[in-house]
Amino acid sequence: MAFDATKKLTRANFQSLPVLCTDGAWGTELMKLGGKPGEVKDFWNVSAPEKVLQVAKSYVDAGSQIILTNTFSANRIVLAQHKAAQQVTELNKAGAEISKKAAAGKAYVFASIGPTGKMVSMGDLDAKEAEEVFAEQAAALAAGGADAIVVETQADLAEAQAALRAAIRATKIPVGVSFTFDSGKDKDRTMMGVTVAQAYEMAVANGASFVGANCGLGIEGYIPIAQAFAQCGKELPIWIKGNAGKPEVEPDGSSVYKATPEVFAKAAKPLLDCGAHFVGGCCGSTPDHIRALVDAVRSAQK
């Protein structure tokens, strides 16, 4: 189907979406607005919604056809560490509503669900409990108006599976899963040793609407990962959001990403040629990176 962000996305029509550009980083953009290192920015959905809206809108203005939500850490496990487990519904619903307001019918909102910080495969968290945690978050995101959900920055196959299953069970919207590949000799495994083939197989088996990779590597580093996903099959469209290069740590402890918008533009055609269907940026990428990527994708499709 042609791109029309006012058209309702369903699990049935998802596969007919055209190639789309997503947004860039949220954390590093919120840092520019006064965020502190290590701070859980998800609380800003309630305490500083105007700043969250500013970031979301900046990506829509840059041409993003999909934007995420400021809800990466808003699960009960992470929030409990800040004595805020009771705010799961409030923070997630608000996060989705802010992104929907920014999207204003010009972009889809794919709500972000990140890891709990506990390894399900290692027994740190029971799989059933993990599903309950993620179902609670997913339901709140759907209630806030999210068009789809992306379970992202995953390293643990068991946790990713729990989150995917939970979000599918708790909502009626499309759900995808994205892993971080930054380990192994060829940087083609997650921190927990998950391969592209394992990630793809799990996603297909558990009803995902899309699968891919984000964070970890610079966007050019994800070109071979996109190709590897494409070689796994044609059941699922591929999602790629790479960082703006490798982070360099500043004296104050902050991370700086120095890959330019031109690097993103240069990666656009190779990513599309390898089979990527949704492309965007992760840590360090800005609206300027996305603007360059959008222009390059348009040129590649002519």
Q: Tell me, what's the shape? A: globular
Strand element count: 10
Strand content: 15-25%
- H/E order of the elements? EHHHEHHEHEHEHEHEEEHEH
How many DSSP helices? Answer: 11
Structural class: alpha/beta
Q: CATH superfamily membership, which one?
A: Homocysteine-binding-like domain
Question: Quick one: CATH class?
Answer: Alpha Beta
Strand order of the largest sheet: 1-10-7-6-5-4-3-2
CATH topology name, in short, is TIM Barrel
Report low-confidence residues grouped into runs of 5 or more.
Answer: none
Radius of gyration: 17 Å
Description:
The protein has one domain (20-300): TIM Barrel. It starts with 19 loop residues before the first strand and ends with a helix. By secondary structure, it is α/β, with parallel strands linked by helices. Strand 5, helix 8 (196-205) and strand 6 form a beta-alpha-beta unit. The mean pLDDT is 96. It has an eight-stranded parallel β-sheet with strand order 1-10-7-6-5-4-3-2. Strands 8-9 form a two-stranded antiparallel sheet. It is built from eleven helices and ten strands.
Write the layout of secondary structure elements.
Layout: E1 20-21, H1 27-32, H2 44-47, H3 49-62, E2 66-67, H4 76-80, H5 88-103, E3 108-113, H6 127-143, E4 148-154, H7 157-170, E5 175-179, H8 196-205, E6 210-218, H9 223-232, E7 238-243, E8 248-249, E9 255-256, H10 261-274, E10 276-281, H11 287-300
Helix pairs in contact: 3-5, 3-11, 5-6, 6-7, 8-9, 9-10, 10-11
